[in-house]
Specification:
Layout: H1 6-26, H2 28-43, E1 47-50, H3 57-65, E2 69-75, H4 81-93, E3 96-102, H5 107-114, H6 118-121, H7 123-139, E4 144-146, E5 163-166, E6 171-174, H8 182-191
Parallel strand pairs: 1-2, 1-4, 2-3, 4-6
Antiparallel strand pairs: 5-6
Helix pairs in contact: 1-2
Bound molecules: iron/sulfur cluster.
Iron/sulfur cluster is lined by residues 76, 78, 119, 123, 126-127, 130-131, 208-209, 211-212, 235.
């Protein structure tokens, strides 16, 4: 499929955004499946899914609705071994084409350039180098991308559309799980016997890089374990 200019993509995003907003009110799970089929029909090989390898719901849903779909994993060099294990299992168990995307510099090279533990001194810079720039690079070949963000996760995500516009990258941004609740995720994972990151059962409801993720107590905000003791709440890839 040929690349579309940003103006045409923006029109697609606006039209689909209005349509799937209504669908998500009728059925959050149904809208997730429908929007993935729409992405496949609309963008062909010019769209991809990102997955952080926590509950693997998005990778599985995409594999079932659009077999062979490209799934991007941002390999920051700082992941828990459990997360890398889930990534490897997904790549052989689900019908996806897994793209392991790494930063321009390895962790030792970054340490040499910026000093060790940049994540402690300047986590925004560290995320920019190890997540945002690699994703920007990986998405260059695509017109649209889908992520696993949900409205329920945090106040900053409460207005998340099912289909929106990625202003920074001039691409269509798809959020198939936008309207899903935690109960929807659990039900889908149980019904399909999904691969799950074992850390989810060990007090890590939101799993990111090892240096920036802490265990949370039952009942606490699930994302409060990400960059604890900092005002930072997002890595920047969803801006
Ligand atoms: S989450 Fe932490 S370790 Fe991972 S890229 Fe961001 S600052 Fe660096």
């Amino acid at each position: 499929m040929k690349a579309r200019p940003p103006g045409a993509l923006r029109e697609l995003a606006d039209e689909a955004g209005a349509r799937f907003a209504g669908e998500s009110v009728r059925s959050a799970v149904g809208a997730g499946e429908q929007v993935l089929r729409w992405a496949e029909q609309t963008f062909g090989d010019r769209w991809a899914v990102t997955d952080s390898m926590s509950d693997t719901v998005l990778a599985h849903l995409a594999a079932c609705t659009t077999p062979g779909v490209a799934v991007i994993f941002l390999d920051t060099g700082y992941h828990f071994p459990e997360t890398l294990g889930v990534r490897d299992a997904v790549s052989v168990s689900y019908d996806v084409r897994l793209l392991n995307v790494v930063a321009a510099r390895s962790v030792p090279e970054q340490d040499a350039e910026h000093g060790p533990r940049l994540y402690e001194r300047d986590p925004d810079r560290c995320c920019a180098l190890r997540k945002v720039e690699p994703l920007d690079r990986a998405l260059e070949q695509y017109d649209a991308w889908a992520g696993g963000a949900r409205r329920e996760e945090s106040p900053t995500r409460s207005g998340l559309p099912v289909v929106g516009w990625d202003t920074r990258r001039n691409k269509v941004k798809i959020n198939p799980l936008a309207a899903w609740t935690s109960a929807d995720l659990r039900a889908y994972a149980a019904e399909h016997d999904l691969l799950l990151n074992p850390l989810l059962r060990e007090g890590f409801p939101s799993i990111g890089c090892r240096p920036c993720t802490r265990r949370v107590e039952p009942g606490q905000d699930p994302r409060s374990g990400r960059w604890p003791d900092r005002v930072k709440t997002e890595c920047g890839i969803h801006r």
